[in-house]
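Researcher: Let's do a round of design. I'm pasting the structure tokens now; please hold your answer until I've finished.
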């Protein structure tokens, strides 16, 4: 079993993308992930939409506001 890395509805964070990856964790669906370095130095891996994954590059800023999906800033 794998851990869901989907951002919660009420989560709020912002950071810099340090790595992009994707994979078929369950064998039938493609999941898109980014590694994000937060302002306090912590790193976290987050699942994002395919559209956003294709639009961002490493070193881009990504923001997650409460009630909204992660977005490129």
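Researcher: That's everything. Go ahead.
Model: Designed sequence:
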């Amino acid at each position: 079993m794998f851990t869901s890395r989907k951002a919660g509805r009420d989560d709020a964070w912002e950071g810099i993308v340090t790595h992009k990856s994707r994979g078929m964790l369950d064998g039938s669906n493609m999941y898109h992930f980014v590694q994000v370095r937060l302002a306090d130095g912590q790193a976290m891996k987050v699942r994002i939409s395919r559209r956003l994954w294709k639009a961002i590059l490493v070193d881009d800023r990504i923001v997650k506001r409460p009630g909204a999906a992660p977005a490129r800033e």
